[in-house]
Each structure stands twice: as structure tokens, then as C-alpha cells.
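Recall that a protein's primary structure is simply its ordered list of amino acids. Everything else, from secondary elements to tertiary packing, is in principle encoded there. The following example makes that idea concrete.
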Amino acid sequence: FDVYTATYGTSIYRRFPAAKAECMMEGGKAPTAVAPALLETCVDLSKSWLETTPFTGLPAGVKLILADIHEGGSGTPGMVAEVMAWRKSVAGTPDNLWDRLGAANVAYVSHLQKLVATSQEDSKNWEEAVMKLGELPSSKWGESGIQYAADLSAAQGLALSCRGMLREMGEVSEVEIEPTGLTQLLNDTAALPGVIAAGCPGAGGYDAVFALVLGDHAVAKVEAFWESYQGKHVCPLLVREDPRGVQFD
């Protein structure tokens, strides 16, 4: 999905069903080689592997920023294997944490998509709201009386719920999805003006942190906070979210 996103821009990632790759397997065992014809059949672009949902990027004025954590990184393959083993152990349990997190992620993305439409349909008022709310911490949005404050507060609540479930998943699977050593940094980041969400991207661990922020002014404040953070070496990165993907001039 890294290559896909770099090529096509911001996307909604959905894990494809493993059964779709079974045509390349022999008797359930991993093959030592794959016949070109079988590979061609597997990746036939005329056949859809799953339903996809178009995503046009983040709402206007909402910025996704990242920072590197100089802690030596985490072993992603091993972390993923342990989480998948835990997932298998709870697969038959009704209302299990994995399924609840999946539903929460869908609700979060759906809400962001609604905000994209709102930001396009009422761009002037939306831009004004982003500017004003970017000066306030999310804990003050609800009482601000600013237009669209409730919508962005809802986004913040959905993001916080997803983060909480990821932290719980890390605890039950004994994997540092959100390492305890980064929790304070993330909490402090989330409390800054204009921040909708903060967390550990990808598979989690000590590699990086992200923040979803309202407006460039709030972005500058978050990045300045990261650069001066005591106790961790936090290095803001120059990368930015882009819904367009590769562009040819």
C-alpha cells in the first residue's frame, strides 16, 4: 500500500482476502516458484478482489503531519505476526475487539468523507471555522459556538476511540502498537490547539508519530512542539498528505 498511495494519492486501504491468491498455491503449501500464467491469472485487473470506496483526500484545511522518533525503530513483521496470531485466537468470539476496531475505523473514515463534502459545499464558512478552531484545543471546540465545531469534535472523538482500541489491542496481543513510552507525547500532542488526532502510524511501535491538524498555523505549532519536546528525540518530517498521487506536467 506504500507504493499504491505514492502512485495514486491518499486512499482507503482494505486488506484483500487471502483466498484471492490461492490460485498460486499448490496443495496449501507455499510454492518455491510461481508459473507466469498463474501469476497473470491472480493479478488480472479485470477481476475485482473486493469492493472499494473512492476517497478524495482529507477535508480542506486538515493537514496530516508526521515525525520520526529516534528510538531505533520497531520490528514490523514480527509485530504483525503476533497481532495476526491474536486475531486468529478471537476470530470466533462475538463482538471481539478486532471487529469493533474495524467498525470504528469505518465510522471514522465515513465521517471524514462527510466533512470533505461539507468543506467543498460551504467552503467559505468551513475555511473560517478551520482558522478559528485551529487556535483552540479540541477540548474547547464544543463550547466555542463556532460553526462546524460539533462536526470536528465528532471526528476527534472517533479518532480517540480508534486509538484507544489500538492501545487495547496492543495490550491483549502483547505488542507495542502504541508503546507506553510514546503515550505521553501523543497525549501532549493531542492537547495542542487545532489537533484532531494523534497516534502511531502503520503497525505502530517506535518508528513515528502522526497528527491530524487544522490549518498551517496549528501545524507550525505542533512541529515546533515536537522539535523542542523533552525526553524524546522527535524529528518533524516534511512529507504531507496528497490526494493526487503522481502528477505529470
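Helices lie at 2-8, 36-42, 76-90, 97-121, 123-133, 149-173, 180-190, 215-227. The first helix runs from residue 2 to 8.
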